[in-house]
Amino acid sequence: MKIIIQHNSMVPIYEQLVNQIKSLILEESLRENEPLPSVRVLAKEIKASALTVKKAYDLLEQEGFIATVHGKGSFVLAVNRHAKRENLLYSTQEELEQVIKKARQAGISKAELVELIAMILEEELG
Hints:
Keywords: DNA-binding, Transcription, Transcription regulation. The chain has helices spanning 13-26, 39-46, 50-62, 81-105, 110-125, and strands at residues 66-69, 73-76.
């Protein structure tokens, strides 16, 4: 499991961890019933406290992404199709916001941007 934590980020480490594990599950890089690293092992890997990792795992469990079995560890649950769609919509929105920022910086008008998007959609979707 590849997790990259930015220790100098304004986003708390547990949130970074939750978001990355959610993405791995929704992208199906982590599959149903796959075990997650133990709290201690992951804490050591990302150079964070075990309490931080435990907090992230607890949140993931509350949101229905993982289940923890006492003495056995934490495991990925089946992907909820609605959650997967929401995650894709959210990431698409973030990417579009970046595109809009770049367009503004480049002096591209709203009309030009809409025209460009319509043209791309026409080519892609027919």
